[in-house]
What does this fold into?
Amino acid sequence: MHNYDPASFHTAIEGKLKRKHRTTLEEATDKEIYYSIASIIQDLVMPKWFETNQEIQQNKSKQVYYISMEFLIGRLIESNLQNCGLLDICNQTLLDLGRRPERIYEQEHDAALGNGGLGRLAACFLDSIASLGYAGHGSGIRYRYGLFEQRIIHGNQVELPDYWLKEEYPWETRKPDEAVEIRFGGTVHEHKRRDGSLEISYENTDSVMAVPYDVPVLGYHNEVVNTLRLWSAELSPAENKGLSASDQQYYHHLDHIHSIEQISGFLYPDDSTFEGKELRLKQQYFLVSATIKNIIANFRRNHDLPLSMMPEYTVIQINDTHPSLAVPELMRILMDEEGYGWEKAWQITTNLLAYTNHTTLSEALEKWPVSMIQNLLPRLYMIIHEINERFCEQIYTTHPELRDKIHELAIISYEQIHMAHLAIVGSFSVNGVAKIHTEILKNKEMKNFYTLYPKKFNNKTNGITHRRWLQQVNPCLASKITDVIGPRWVHEPHKLMNLLRYTNDAPFLETMKDCKQHSKHLLAKYVYEQQGVKLNTDSIFDVQIKRLHEYKRQLMNVFHIIYLYNELKDNPNMDITPRTFIFAAKAAPSYHLAKEVIKLIHHVASVVNNDPDIKDKLKVVFLENYNVSLAEKIIPAAEVSEQISTASKEASGTGNMKMMMNGAITCGTLDGANIEIRDFVGDDNIFIFGLTAEQVLDYYAHGGYDAKSIYHADVRVKRVLDQLNGGVFGSQEIEFKDLFYNIMYHNDPFFVLKDFGPYVETHEMIDRAYRDQNHWQRMAATNIAHSGKFSSDRTIMEYVSDIWKL
Ligand code: 26V
It folds into this structure.
């Protein structure tokens, strides 16, 4: 994509600095250099971007649109440099200039337009779609505020706004000419035309402009540039009444502008519980309506064909139910604006849409109050109502055996709209994100729908982009891998399997270990700079990084640490492999128990880290403000990957894949993709423990679990819980009573006590296994070798062949 060598790249930066910043290489700030490099990349990208679009138009190839409320893309500078083949040249140039490359790249604000796994998955998918050369685009919201910035003050999480756009974002291009109008509210009028068809008109609607900002998505070394289109809400010209400050209406008008801009104002930070917030519904409709109008406009630009032909050239993947208003919105446009009858419109709609489910946690499932949809989207409500009527009717006539289940299957019931039901009925494909998750969907959560539509259901086990999560974040390991198996694994990640030939090769294992030590030192340096805590880099780096949720059981990890601490206090000479427990996690701002766990981790850390008896044997650190960039620092240094969710709860997990790919050994439950990781690497290369999903679901269904009896029977458990309740950690006795009560009086809903014993024993095995470094490095190499299967390239190829048919 470029003809640069270090000398000409140097000259190019110099030129940019001069022309754009009126400064020199010597005087420029790191930020100015960052902007100069970004601008050089954009200059290279623009023509390729144009050509990619031309090619799609000319070849009339089928395109996929990935609609998602979240794209957790993180920083782009390094991956863009890498994908256009400039990373080494740029690094060398910067070093020659006496600049530290990472200091320059850090100038980019980490784009946090997502909460966690679901948003990061969308970002990995875009990378793989482009790198595999498919025509696929992301469509999302350009939130002015991304996920909050987390600060810890006296152990408590405090949220600060993430105003990521306060400085220019160099990757985006505003496209005002492609703005579309979105309408909310108002009254719907239906007029019957002479031919019997309906004419729909609206009165008193509020209108908003959706203005697109395009971010290029570069394929790896293939000259492909796809688009991530992020929509921003602005005042529509129709509503701009040009009032002057003396007007009475003036402040009312300012208020109105503010409320419009709020639609793309901020990302909702709660991914644990659904709340029927009107603003969130507005965001969803805003995204869906803008995207569909855009898709139709693109289809018309590329083809001279009726919209009924769209499904041959277009497919729309919706990321969870958040964009599921796509079903009634497509119906509305096809019928009201394009004149199709119901049957034809339904056929087109259901051949365009495919839905991915990412959770079975009932508290996270979206159910909107009927009244809210009626008020905000009156025409869409009429359509949803009709979809529901026809659907229930169809069950009644074609599936008599399901007649008594209709109320459970209905899209509208008890004055609520069940978005998952709407999405299933309105799509041709429904997929889960790991084998076990799809099985639970088919046989439990969506059982009746599976009976109705067995062919719609399919599994697509998640993946991660190995280009970012291995090649980019761990250049040391990546180059050592290339040294032994050659470079082809970057294009064909399954080729990592060739590493299996080196799992008994002592020199290779030694180099792998050197890379791990190098990454551990870098992380230790960061931790020291951040919080003045010195890590023992000869200790096991035991990592749990993910959103803070009860089901992910960070609490069980903390209980284990308290237990180890007690053991060491009782017997200071105990033979234990030194450990460093590393946490990073954001809690939803209103999730009280999750915040309590963050506080507990800090209190335990301060007791353990400051106890002279413990010496270098145990350390606990919590790194604040977990985001993509922090994950990139931690993951290469991880040796134990904690994936300890209550079985059946974690749909897939993707952090498990990222750490495995960097040579960490998973300590996990039989949940999500952990199961597939185990099946692939084998029992000898993973530490599995705990209840199975079947056992958990059985307890939920039939009872039989009693947390208190474990408390009374297991002295280790009793001691930890009594310390929690007795003020040993924390300044006052009542400090953690909510956590204590939740276990003791709400019967430990996530089976922390039940799995505690097996968890402790598994960690004893880990402790022993680590002492045999040769054996440990062999396990690490085996994990890396098998991690290619969890590349999102594999996942995308499956979407392409089974669902998208590109
Ligand atoms: C849920 C909600 C619910 C209420 C409104 C706001 C909001 C925003 C996001 C979410 C996402 C919950 C679903 C989710 O993130 N699932 C995760 O998806 C990952 C990718 O498939 C998967 O690896 C994780 O296991 C799964 O928890």
